[in-house]
Amino acid sequence: PVSIVRTASYRRRISVNSGGYGMVNIFALAVLLLFAPASGWAAIDDAQKADIYNRCLAKAQSDPSAAYSDALAWHEAGGGLPARHCAAVALVGTRQYAEAAARLETLSTEVAKQDPGLRVGLLAQAAQAWQLSGRVERAEQLQNQAIEFAPTDRQLRVDRAVTRLTLGKSWEAIDDLNVAIELDPQDPEAMLYRAS
User: Fold this and answer.
1) What pLDDT score does 92 carry?
2) pLDDT for residue 42
3) DSSP state of 76
4) Could you tell me how far CA 16 lies from the centroid of its own chain?
5) Using an 8 Å Cβ cutoff, are 118 and 27 in contact?
6) Cβ–Cβ under 8 Å, residues 172 and 164
7) 3, 16, 17, 154 — which has fewest CB within 10 A?
8) Strand pairing partners for 17?
9) Rounded to an integer, what distance in angstroms lies between the CA atom of residue 129 and that of residue 104?
10) For the chain, which residues score pLDDT lower than 50?
């Protein structure tokens, strides 16, 4: 089972829930416009680009192996960063978490100067994929980086709190949850973790 979770900062994140695993996108149409290479892909109008991207991500949720193959073909046809992101999404769907995390981390580095906000979203996704792979320490490192760029992002604080709880860093997790609740006193997720 795969779930889509939109955060308040308009990015989407990997969601781990009682029903299984999931991976969703953080990109908007603006990303497609920013990173479209000058090829056949560039000749496609914006609505078609967004449709291709969204279909790839939807397929990554329903049939990740096929979506991965499609994303590779799309990349070869000039799909650029959106195609590579879709491939990483598909890898999470096939439970190849470490490979997906490494690719997401690479993408975050590549977009660092062009779009710091996008970098934060990619770092958050990479951190979640590292956590799914069992490399929780690496997840915390990336979450630290993301929070340096977006210290008032409530969801990043909650995500890092969950990571820190996994690492046995209870007091640091409580600190993150306190900040998240200060940022949004009505946040049920932060309040639930803080109460437990």
Assistant:
1) 96
2) 61
3) I
4) 12
5) yes
6) yes
7) 17
8) 20
9) 9
10) 1-38
Alpha-carbon gap, residue 154 to 106, rounded angstroms = 24
Chain Cα centroid distance, residue 73? 22
Q: DSSP character for 3?
A: -
Task: Choose among 143, 145, 148, 175: nearest CA to 160.
Answer: 143
* Residue 183 CA to its chain's centroid (Å): 21
CB 112 within 8 A of CB 146: no
- Look up residue 26 and give its two tokens: 């953080």
CA distances (Å), 124 to each of 16, 163, 171, in order? Answer: 13, 12, 21
Q: For the CA atoms of 11, 16, 20, 22, what is the dihedral angle to 10 degrees?
A: 20
The per-type count for the chain, helices as H runs and strands as E runs, is 10, 0
Over the stretch 138-174, which tens digit does the pLDDT of each residue have?
999 999 999 999 999 999 999 999 999 999 999 999 9
Kindly state the tokens that stand for 188.
């049920």
pTM: 0.78
- Measure the CA–CA gap between 173 and 164, rounded to whole angstroms: 5
CA distance 60 to 71: 9
